[in-house]
Amino acid sequence: MKDASVQAVRARFSGALLREGAEGYDTARKVWNGAIDRKPALIARCTGPSDVVEAVRFAREQDLPISVKGGGHAVAGHAVGQGAVMIDLSLMREVSVDPAAKTARAAGGTIWSDVDRATQAVGLATVGGIVSHTGVGGLTLGGGIGHLMRSFGLTVDNLKAIELVTPEGRQIRADAGNETELFWGLRGGGGNFGIATAFEFELHPLGPIVLSGVIAWPLERAREVLAVVRQLQAEGPDELGLTVSMRKAPPIPFWRAEQYLQPAILVIATWTGTSCPTKGHKASRPRTAGPRSNDLSR
Predict the structure, then answer these.
(1) What is the CATH number of domain 95-205?
(2) For 185, which DSSP code?
(3) Is 258 in a helix, a strand, or coil?
(4) Which entry of 71, 219, 222, 261 is 20 to 30 Å from 174 by CA?
(5) 93: closest CA among 68, 75, 115, 124?
(6) Interatomic CA distance for residues 30 and 216, integer angstroms
């Protein structure tokens, strides 16, 4: 890249353009996976769609590859491209909620805690990720699974529209009545159709108090636990969402100290029904799997 070319786009760019050695460059190129250590040729920290347009056009003019950082959560670190123009959306985290229409609009750099915080303020929710720091963009463009999916479907089932910048640098909106083929592809087809600058979601009444929690067993009980979970998935009510994780027990205050980092199977149960919580509590307990190490359902 020539300095003159960077200076030319800088005059039209509202955010920050960072090259190696600049203040903030090393912080901006970090992602959730700390093993990723790639160095983009330029980091474009966008503040809005017009910045994204400028960054895309610049990369085309310079014949440079593009990577896109939303939440930066993907373990493969696709957000950071070696020698690329890294389009960083992490400053674009605005969320607006229309309680009457039961919709939310989230900017391209939001993470799910941003969306949940805004929607739960009015007792609404949509299907977000399993953890709160996942990026809205990456999860949605990949289809999207979350704790509420048994009741409300995948994240893309709740997606009403996407605003994006195309590879040619055009701003468009894709929804059920506009750019329909593109909208079909965006709903789970991955992240290579354009750069999503905003998402619009359908919301559902839920919360802010929800019956949910983690139930844990030693990992050697996995066969028994999974058999019961499979039965519950087939026969249980749609209001009961179950997520299974096999991992070392995290060192958090809810576990006893002797259980820290011990192999465990965790079942995260979430009840979305409007009926008496007692029903949900009963349905969410796979008791036939035997004694539990921990039962944190509340």
Answers:
(1) 3.30.465.10
(2) H
(3) helix
(4) 71
(5) 115
(6) 33
In angstroms, the CA 153 to CA 269 distance is 16
Tokens representing residue 167 in the block: 């590879």
**Cis omega (within 30 of 0) for bond into 253:** no
Could you tell me if 128 and 109 are in contact, meaning their C-beta atoms sit under 8 angstroms apart?
no
Say how far apart CA 155 and CA 157 lie, in whole Å.
5
Longest dimension (CA), the chain: 70
What's the CA gap between 20 and 280, in Å, rounded? 54
Closest CA to 104 of 134, 125, 80: 125
Give the span between the Cα atoms of 126 and 160, in whole angstroms. 12
Predicted confidence (pLDDT) per residue in 146-189, tens digit: 999 999 999 999 999 999 999 999 999 999 999 999 999 999 88
**285: exposed, middle or buried (C-beta count within 10 Å: 0-12, 13-18, 19+)?**
middle
State pLDDT tens for residues 209-268.
Answer: 888 888 889 999 999 999 999 999 999 899 999 999 999 988 877 778 888 899 999 999
pLDDT in tens, 22-62: 999 999 999 999 999 999 999 999 999 999 999 999 999 99
Sign of CA dihedral 203, 208, 212, 213: positive
What's domain 3-88's architecture?
Answer: 2-Layer Sandwich (3.30)
Cα 279 from chain centroid (whole Å): 30
How do beta strands 66-69 and 85-88 pair? Answer: parallel
* Domain 211-295 CATH (choose: 3.40.462.20, 3.40.30.10, 2.40.400.10, 3.90.650.10): 3.40.462.20
